[in-house]
Amino acid sequence: MAVLPIHVLGASVLRQETTPVTKVTPELLKLADDMFDTMHAASGVGLAAPQVGRTERLAVVEVEGERHVLFNPEIVLEEGSIKWEEGCLSIPEIYGDVMRAARVIVRATGRDGKLFDVEGRDLLGVCLQHEIDHLHGKLFIDHLSFLKKRKAMALWEDEKDKYPDLLRILTPDSVNEQGDESERL
Q1: Domain containing residue 93: CATH number
Q2: pLDDT over threshold 60, residue 180
Q3: Which end of the chain is less crowded, N or C, counting CB atoms within 10 A of the terminal residue's CB?
Q4: What is the pLDDT of residue 171?
Q5: For residue 40, what is the enclosing H or E element?
Q6: How many Å apart are CA 130 and CA 63, to the nearest integer?
Q7: Number of structural domains found in the chain
């Protein structure tokens, strides 16, 4: 297993539509495992393939010990609404309140190649929606109002120079010391 570089805001791969996975292969299972290692090194709770420079429709999520590998995830039910402060491993140190569905049911293919459904509320629900957005080239800042997005982008201007080549390089013992679990999606 390995910790992969995370592509940050400005990298074109973050704005691309991903390609559906037609078969769960050993290579893709290793990628999922590496994504968990990367997510943990960044102290996150979710990570999508484009964030590590890949175009497969794959995301990993781990909230409160509940771990999911999601190939081709899609939201099949949304209910209610919730405002949640979100951040992103691809936009470090930038946060914003986003309106999301309060409850979702997501259908995906798992590690075993079989379809399954996962219900998400609160942090798990927000995380699932956030990662699925990544698979369609959308970032949490796209949900912000014009003025809040403009403020976030101004803050990012001050941060982005920390990431040469638009890459965030982590080590297995990297620790993100800011924010709580609800912010690191």
Answers
A1: 3.90.45.10
A2: no
A3: N
A4: 77
A5: helix 26-41
A6: 13
A7: 1
182 part of a folded domain: no
Tell me which of 131, 157, 181, 183 is the catalytic residue.
131
First CA to last CA across the chain, in angstroms? 21
Quote the strand ranges of 28-161, DSSP E: 46-48, 58-63, 66-79, 82-88, 91-100, 103-109, 115-121
Domain around 71: 6-177
How many C-alpha atoms does 102 have within 13 Å on its Cβ side?
4
In a domain? residue 35: yes
Q: How far is CA 13 from CA 66, 114, 140, in A?
A: 28, 27, 15
184 falls within a domain:
no
pLDDT tens for each residue of 60-104: 999 999 999 999 999 999 999 999 999 999 999 999 999 999 999
Residues 6+ apart with CB under 8 A from 93: 87, 155, 159, 178
pLDDT digits (tens, 9 = 90+) for 18-71: 999 999 999 999 999 999 999 999 999 999 999 999 999 999 999 999 999 999
Q: Compute φ and ψ for 69, nearest 5 degrees.
A: -105, 125
Whether residue 183 is contained in a domain is answered as: no
Q: Give kind and range of the element (H or E) at residue 167.
A: strand 167-168
| Phi (first) and psi of residue 28, to 5 degrees | -70, -35
